[in-house]
Amino acid sequence: MLQQTRVVQGMPYFFAFTKEFPTIFDLADASEEQVLKLWQGLGYYSRARNLHNTAKYIAYELNGVFPQTYKELLTLKGVGEYTAAAIASFSYNEPVPVVDGNVFRVLSRYFDIDSDIMLPASKKEFAQLAYELMPKDDPATFNQAIMEFGALQCVPKNPNCNICVFNESCLALQKKKVNELPVKIKKTKITNRFFNYFVLEDATGNSVIQKRTTKGIWHNLYEFPLLETNEIKDFDYISNAVKKQMFPIYTIIGIEECSEATVIHKLSHQHLHIQFWKIKIKEEIKDGIEFEKIKTFPFPIVIYNFIEKL
C-alpha cells in the first residue's frame, strides 16, 4: 500500500483491509472485485491485484508460510528490490539495504555523489554504499533511520541545514550543492488523453457500466461507456457520436454535459481530460443497473467521485 502512497493516506486502507481480511487465507479467498473495491482511491491498481495474487500463492502454494529471505521475497508478484529489502531487514533482520528516494537524497548529498539516480548502475552504487555503512547486527534500525531522516530532515527542497546533525560533515552543504542533489536526469513523458463518459438513463431510471478488461490503467475496474477522442470535443460532435456510433439502437431523448469544466485527472504518466455526459433514452436497458447498486462496484476514484455527486 505504501509503495506509491503516503502513510497518512494508506493507514485507513490498511485498517479496512485487515478488518475485512484478518488472515492471508481470507485475502486469498476474496474475489478480485472485493479487493479492488477496498483499494478504491489508492491508485496504481496493479498493486492491489499483485497483493491478491501473492496472497493466493502464499496461501495455496506455500501453505500460508511467508518467505523469510530477501531472495525468496523477490519471487513474489509485485515485490521488488525495495519492498523485499524492507521486509527482509525489518521482519527477519537480514542485512539488506533499502534504497528509496530518501536514501538516494541523503547519501548523494552527504557524500556529494552526482551519479544520475535514474540509471541502474547508480542504484547499485548507492545500494553498495548503504550496505557498507549499515551495522550488520541491526539493519532494521539503520534502514528505517536513514529513510526517516530523508523524509523529515533532508527533504527534497530547501532543507533546514542549520539544525542538521551532519551539517559539519555534509559535502553538499560545504560545496553549496544541496539543492542540486540528487541528480535525476530522466523526465517522465506525459501523455494527454481525452475521455468522454456516457451516463445512460433509461425509462426505469437504470443505467449501464462496463469493466475495463484491456491492459493499461484501471484494469478490471468499472466505468461508464467510454468514447476516447484526440482532443476535447464540443456538443455537436458528441451528439452525433452518441446517436450514430455509440448507441444507434436506442432512441435518444436528451443529451446533457454534466459539468461545464472538464475534469483533469493526473496520473504519473498520463493526464486524463474527462467529460461526463448524461444520455436519456426512451427504451429500457436490458440488464440495466440501479444507480444505488452501481456504487457497490469498484471504480477509479475520479468516476466514483462523480457518481457520489449524482
UniProtKB/TrEMBL annotation:
Official protein name in the record: Adenine DNA glycosylase
InterPro entries, per the entry: DNA_glycosylase (IPR011257), HhH-GPD_domain (IPR003265), HhH_base_excis_C (IPR023170), HhH_motif (IPR000445), MIG/MutY (IPR044298), MutY_C (IPR029119), NUDIX_hydrolase-like_dom_sf (IPR015797)
Gene3D superfamilies: Helix-hairpin-Helix base-excision DNA repair enzymes (C-terminal), Hypothetical protein, domain 2, Nucleoside Triphosphate Pyrophosphohydrolase
Root EC class: hydrolase
Keyword DNA damage: yes
Gene name, Swiss-Prot/TrEMBL: mutY
SUPFAM superfamilies tied to this protein: DNA-glycosylase, Nudix
Its job: Adenine glycosylase active on G-A mispairs. MutY also corrects error-prone DNA synthesis past GO lesions which are due to the oxidatively damaged form of guanine: 7,8-dihydro-8-oxoguanine (8-oxo-dGTP).
Cofactor annotation remark: Binds 1 [4Fe-4S] cluster.
The keyword NADP is annotated on this UniProt entry: no
Pfam families registered for this protein in UniProt: HHH, HhH-GPD, NUDIX_4
Keywords: 4Fe-4S, DNA damage, DNA repair, Glycosidase, Hydrolase, Iron, Iron-sulfur, Metal-binding
Cofactors demanded by this protein: [4Fe-4S] cluster
HhH-GPD domain segment(s): 1-152
Catalytic reactions of this protein: Hydrolyzes free adenine bases from 7,8-dihydro-8-oxoguanine:adenine mismatched double-stranded DNA, leaving an apurinic site
Entry EC number(s): 3.2.2.31
Family: Belongs to the Nth/MutY family.
